[in-house]
Amino acid sequence: MVTFGRVLTAMVTPFDEAGGVDFQRARELALALVQSGTDGLVITGTTGESPTLTGEEKIRLYAEVKEAVGRRVPVVAGTCNYNTAESIELSLEAQKVGVDGILGTVPYYNKPPQEGLYQHFKAIAEAVPLPMILYNVPSRTVTNMLPDTTIRLSEIDSIVGVKEASGNFDGIAKIIDKSRSGFLVWSGDDSSTLPILALGGYGIVSVASHLIGKQIQRMIGGFLAGDVATAARIHRETLPLVNSLFVVTNPIPLKYALNRVGFQVGKPRLPLVEIDEKSAAVVDAALAASTVDLPISRG
Fold first, then answer.
1. Structural domains present in the chain
2. Beta strands in the chain, from DSSP E residues, in sequence order
3. For 124-155, what is each residue's pLDDT tens digit?
């Protein structure tokens, strides 16, 4: 089974000036992230603007990024949506181009009951011979996957963990306590990484690691080594930047920040738009007070 690592970066999808996917820039960003603390890459998740990408763009993006990073880090493909059959089809195509795992986002829009969520992910897991990380993000999907459903899904061997962005620490604690041995919980919110580690969580699927991956690694390493004071200090010091990246809908602030520090990734695709002036000022202030770990390529 693949070891995905503690700091996974939910990578942005770079676009060129015409609005097309900039595959060369995606390769460069993937390699820069590996150099700056990333243990694994999540491609075409929320931060990757997955709803705006075609199936063909997604498959080529998986192939390009995987070819670029090789065996240095695993690549997790965000192949799952509200359509079970389509999720299976895209996951199987992603497998063919070499991805190491898939991200199982809770279905949005059609609001399935908990049994529907269980059957949806069970069907994908049975059809796709790749490890899956579940993704619970009710602020995006409306539907909240309850802890009991996650615990039940943890009994399926190929479902290896969950990215939890519910903000329900009682529920997250229950998942950590009651899931099968070896089932991992990654924080789905950068600001919750340290609290979730304290509950027994494993790591973070991060937005901020685009900019401060090494610092996040030091925070996690300090906590695991018993140096809670250092971990807490890094958490506090990086929190202003983390919060600035969510001042308006992700990945609008992140793309602005990357462009601002000199790593060009283009602007978001509609229906997302470029950052407003007030929000940009918040990001600018946070960047000015931060150290950026990402090696800058001006391409």
1. 7-232 (3.20.20.70)
2. 7-10, 40-43, 75-77, 101-105, 132-136, 159-164, 184-187, 203-206
3. 999 999 999 999 999 999 999 999 999 999 99
